Amino acid sequence: DGGITQSPKYLFRKEGQNVTLSCEQNLNHDAMYWYRQDPGQGLRLIYYSQIVNDFQKGDIAEGYSVSREKKESFPLTVTSAQKNPTAFYLCASSIGLFTEAFFGQGTRLTVV
Amino acid sequence: QKEVEQNSGPLSVPEGAIASLNCTYSDRGSQSFFWYRQYSGKSPELIMSIYSNGDKEDGRFTAQLNKASQYVSLLIRDSQPSDSATYLCAVISSWAYDMRFGAGTRLTVKP
After folding, report:
1. What are residue B91's phi and psi, to 5 degrees?
2. Judged by CB atoms within 8 Å, which residues 22-41 of A form the interface with B?
3. With 70 as the cut, is the pLDDT of residue B23 above it?
4. Which of A17, A26, A104, B97 could form a disulfide with A4 if both were Cys (CB 3.0 to 4.6 A apart)?
5. For chain B, where are the E strands, in sequence order?
6. Distance in Å, alpha carbon of B45 to nearest chain A alpha carbon
7. At CA B4, angle to CA A75 and CA B15, rounded to 5?
8. How close, in Å, is residue B2 to chain A by CA atoms?
């Protein structure tokens, strides 16, 4: 089955910890994205990548980092510099940059 | 002014009725428009895309685009309780070269 897989589904982070969210796709899409969703708000773009070894900051990149070493994978690290990381994180991919995007199942991150 | 605006709702319609969801956007040069459905606690699911003025129909869903008035709408005919969800409007902005989402409209279809 083709699709986008995010893991884990739930993640708990202690204060001061870095955590990494996984995103893998087998759709052969070039572009991949990370969005953050807070209750009652729309999706906000954290980072996006058009091709391997290239990525760009979105609106709220501070406190986050990404890598794109393989076409299929676009992991997101939430660093300790992100002061309010509790949110629903969504990874998406599309054939071309900012075309029809398809989402993974999401990772719900909670700071404990 | 928000770049993509939606009425947050909740919008409540009886089963079998037509649900009408609206979205306005600020970038006049936007070219691509999408509707996503998001069930509570789940990720968004793409249900419609529209690129040209006019109507686009897919089953019980019709997307309507009016670029002159800068709005896009989604009509759901014969609404079912399973249509109860939050509907997100997304617009690809020509100047910002990214996809902007509205905050979503929560729809409840009552049996």
Report:
1. -130, 135
2. 33, 35, 40-41
3. yes
4. A104
5. 4-6, 11-14, 19-25, 32-38, 45-50, 54-58, 61-66, 71-76, 85-93, 98-101, 105-110
6. 7
7. 95
8. 11
Mark yes or no for CB contact B42/A101 under 8 Å. no
pLDDT tens, position by position, B61-104: 999 999 999 999 999 999 999 999 999 999 997 765 678 899 99
Structure tokens at A76: 């997101």
**Average pLDDT, whole number, for chain A?**
93
DSSP secondary structure of A45-104: EEEEEEETTEEEE-TT-TTEEE--SBTTB--EEE-TT-S---EEEEEEEESSTTSS-EE-
Q: Hey, which residues does B91 pair with through a beta bridge?
A: B33, B100
CA dist A10 and A7 (Å) reads 8
The whole-angstrom distance between residue B48's C-alpha and the CA centroid of its chain comes to 8
Residue A104: closest CA among chain B residues belongs to which residue? Answer: B43
- Among candidates B8, B43, B97 on the partner chain, residue whose Cβ is nearest the Cβ of A103: B43
The identity of residue A81, as a single letter, is A
Residue to mutate among B39, B40, B97, B99, with most A CBs inside 10 A, is B99
Q: Residue B6: exposed, middle, or buried by beta-carbon count in 10 A (0-12, 13-18, 19+)? A: buried
For A89, the token pair is 């994180």
Give the A:B interface size as CB pairs under 8 Å.
46
> Inter-chain contact A43–B44, Cβ cutoff 8 Å?
yes
